[in-house]
Amino acid sequence: EAQVTQNPRYLITVTGKKLTVTCSQNMNHEYMSWYRQDPGLGLRQIYYSMNVEVTDKGDVPEGYKVSRKEKRNFPLILESPSPNQTSLYFCASTPSRVSNEQFFGPGTRLTVL
Amino acid sequence: GENVEQHPSTLSVQEGDSAVIKCTYSDSASNYFPWYKQELGKRPQLIIDIRSNVGEKKDQRIAVTLNKTAKHFSLHITETQPEDSAVYFCAASIEGWVTGGGNKLTFGTGTQLKVEL
């Protein structure tokens, strides 16, 4: 089944404790991105990757890191999480530069205490 | 960069009525406009999209219209049903990776649609 997966789905952590949210797609998509969703703000792009080893900042990159060592995986890293990073996170992938249709993962609910 | 505004933020209709959600965008280069439906606790799901070479697209009870001159596009849902209750997001982007942002979608802030019996 073609899909985007994220883990964990729910995470409660404390300020300053490094964490990684994994994202994987099995559709051989070139483009992957991370969004955060907050009430009243919609979805905002954090980082994106246009291919292996090619990543760039989105609209709200502060406090986040990403890597793209393999085409299928695009982990989101919070080196020192803070309470303002409490949010719902979505990973998404797009097949190619021809189409902007994005396929979203199931989401990760992160709470930073 | 692109800015997308969406209205209204909440919309309540009676079952069977029509619902209209409107979005405006700022970047005249945007050429792809998807609409996503997000049910509570679920991921956004694409329900319909339109590209700038057409002015209207319809899929059963859902239609989207695009006015490139005015830079606005709208979602129309006819004969609403309780299962249409969800948050709807519009978005805008530039297809073809002609800019450095790749396939970035800029989203509106969402409309909570409630269909009442």
Brief sketch in words of this structure:
Chain A is mainly β and 113 residues long.
Question: What's the end-to-end separation of chain B, in Å?
Answer: 41 Å
Distance between the termini of chain A: 36 Å
Gyration radius of chain A, rounded: 13 Å
Radius of gyration of chain B: 14 Å
Succession of helices and strands of chain B: EEEEEEEEEEE
Label the structural class of chain A.
mainly beta
Biggest sheet of chain A, in brief? Answer: 7 strands, mixed
> Which structural class matches the secondary elements of chain B?
mainly beta
Amount of beta strand of chain B: over 45%
Number of strands of chain A: 11
Give the integer mean of the pLDDT values of chain B: 92
Q: Give the helix proportion of chain A (percent range).
A: under 10%
Q: What low-confidence regions of chain B span 5 or more consecutive residues with pLDDT below 50?
A: none
The coarse silhouette of chain A is globular
